[in-house]
Model the fold of this input.
Amino acid sequence: MQENNGTSGSASSRGHGRVAWSVFGVACFMLGMSFAAVPLYEMFCRVTGFGGTPMVAAAAPENRGERIMRVLFDANVGPGLNWTFEPEVGSIRILNGETATVFYKVTNRSNQPQTGIATFNVTPNQFGGFFNKISCFCFTEQTLQPGESMDMPVVFFLDPALEKEETLRRMHSVTLSYTFMTVKNPSPLAAVSSDNKPRL
Done:
């Protein structure tokens, strides 16, 4: 009986070891997926317009819509970044399918270089799949020297297809919102590229 107990105990230990390693492996896999989820989610939003994320387009469509929409512009600065950030105009009116260019101005009010990166979204969220950006400054590190200012353009259009969307028939305005967040460990390229930026 004693020999059987010893064999049983050894087998039980091996079984527990396999379970422990399996749990550890699953935990590592889930941790890796959590890091991968951020860029994957960002890619998904850019492709689908989910969560109010504007689409990315190479050029405006050839056709034009029939509705004129009001586009409002919002600017925010996250904690730790001593910048002023604002659009040149509060809003514009644009025909669906037409291309518009609007500038945002940012100024570093601190006494040292600071690097920020802008995120964006549109509201109501239903416009995400129809708000198309041809060019913008988002998701690119921007390094500003003390007192430096810069004008940053956004080129966009509203897809005329939104006029066929039942949920958007009674909506006549959309807000494009940017938020600059601080970058604690900027890439070397951000600092180098800042030397070629237009200063005001």
